[in-house]
């Protein structure tokens, strides 16, 4: 028997939703509300904003997460059920227990003035971060568990593993 959308929502964590958003290019921005996380996605024509609770234990978390998924479904033109099912199986939602080749979540936060261009070789994505902004990225590491990065001026490049 297939689970209802409410049953699926009851299994979804804030961390899984955040992982999904950051994998899809959403960037964490400074929130005016201390108990909320703010994410934005720019597509060249519009800027989309998502406001989420900091954790699964906060008052109103369920409503905020459900609203976020429903809004996201309109933005990406997919059914909420599809999105939640995809979020629930994200490997990045569970921290890795060993250091081996695979996918790891990396958080990059820009400190200081000026912009920082963060480029991922594996996906070809480029995100520009300004002071106080952060992004979480799923990175691929080599068989030794090494994530290789290059820093040049105001650019950070996350290299894809060779091999």
Helix content: 25-40%
* Strand coverage percent: 25-35%
Low-confidence segments, given as residue ranges, are 92-99
**H and E order:** HHEEEHHEEEEEE
Number of helices: 4
State the separation between the terminal residues, measured CA to CA.
42 Å
Structure class: alpha+beta
Largest sheet, described in full? Answer: 4 strands, mixed
Please tell me the overall pLDDT.
Answer: 82
Q: What does the radius of gyration come to? A: 17 Å
Shape, please?
Answer: globular
- What strand line-up does the widest sheet have? 6-5-9-8
Q: Strand tally, please?
A: 9
Structure description:
With about 160 residues, the protein is an alpha+beta fold. The chain has 4 helices and 9 strands; from the N terminus they run ααβββααββββββ. The strands form 3 sheets. Strands 6-5-9-8 form a 4-stranded mixed sheet, with no helix packed on it. The protein has a 3-stranded antiparallel sheet with strand order 1-2-3. A hairpin with a 2-residue loop joins β8 and β9. α2 (about 15-25) packs across α4. The termini are far apart.
List the helices and strands and how they pair.
Blueprint: H1 5-11, H2 14-23, E1 27-29, E2 36-42, E3 47-53, H3 61-76, H4 80-88, E4 102-109, E5 116-120, E6 126-129, E7 134-141, E8 149-152, E9 155-158
Parallel strand pairs: 5-9
Antiparallel strand pairs: 1-2, 2-3, 4-7, 5-6, 8-9
């Amino acid at each position: 028997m297939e689970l209802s959308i409410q049953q699926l929502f009851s299994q979804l964590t804030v961390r899984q939703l955040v992982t999904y958003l950051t994998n899809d290019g959403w960037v964490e921005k400074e929130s005016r509300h201390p108990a909320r996380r703010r994410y934005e996605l720019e597509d060249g024509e519009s800027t989309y904003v998502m406001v989420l609770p900091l954790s699964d234990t906060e008052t109103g978390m369920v409503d905020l997460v459900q609203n976020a998924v429903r809004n996201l479904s309109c933005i990406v033109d997919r059914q909420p059920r599809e999105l939640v099912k995809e979020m629930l199986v994200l490997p990045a939602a569970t921290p890795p227990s060993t250091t081996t080749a695979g996918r790891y979540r990396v958080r990059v936060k820009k400190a200081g003035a000026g912009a920082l261009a963060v480029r991922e070789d594996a996906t070809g994505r480029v995100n520009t971060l300004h002071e106080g902004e952060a992004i979480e990225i799923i990175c691929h590491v080599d068989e030794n568990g090494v994530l290789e990065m290059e820093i040049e001026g105001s650019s950070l490049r996350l290299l894809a593993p060779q091999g």
